[in-house]
Write a structure and sequence with these properties.
single chain; three-stranded antiparallel β-sheet; 39% strand; mainly beta
């Protein structure tokens, strides 16, 4: 994934998405913005890194039933497994962030308004590298 989008080298309980907040207007951005305030009504430019809410509520969801095209990394010879894609409204920031559900959670188990939390996930791995990303996990099934 992209460096600086989430905390790394920490336990699951400490895993958080990272955004930036404009010091002039308090607008929060994810993915992070390090150059300028994206709020068109703000002339500010100083941005500070912030940890985003760990929990939010499902705003919308769908399932991915086909293998995405490149640059998505997957083995074309492997059987495709559908996955759930969620749009989650974060509690404090009141912004929507997309991400996959944890493996094994299907759209049949999701509902708009359901509480979910962000956890580390694996995007891809090979013999020498594991690419980390984030997943959304329903709070009711958290262990």
């Amino acid at each position: 994934m992209v460096a600086g989008w989430f905390t790394q080298d920490s336990g699951e309980e400490d895993f958080r998405l990272l955004g930036t907040r404009c010091t002039a207007c308090s607008s929060v951005f994810f993915p992070r913005e390090d150059s300028y305030c994206r709020n068109p009504a703000c002339a500010g430019g100083e941005l500070a890194e912030v940890q985003l809410s760990k929990r939010g509520r499902v705003w919308s969801y769908t399932d991915g039933r086909y293998r995405p095209p490149a640059p998505y990394v997957s083995d074309p010879a492997a059987e495709w497994t559908p996955y759930a894609l969620l749009a989650v409204e974060l509690e404090a920031e009141r912004m929507v962030v997309l991400g996959q559900a944890v493996p094994g959670v299907t759209v049949a188990e999701l509902a708009v308004g359901m509480e979910v939390e962000v956890v580390p996930g694996v995007l891809n791995e090979d013999a020498g590298t594991v690419w980390t990303t984030w997943h959304w996990r329903p709070v009711e099934t958290a262990s």
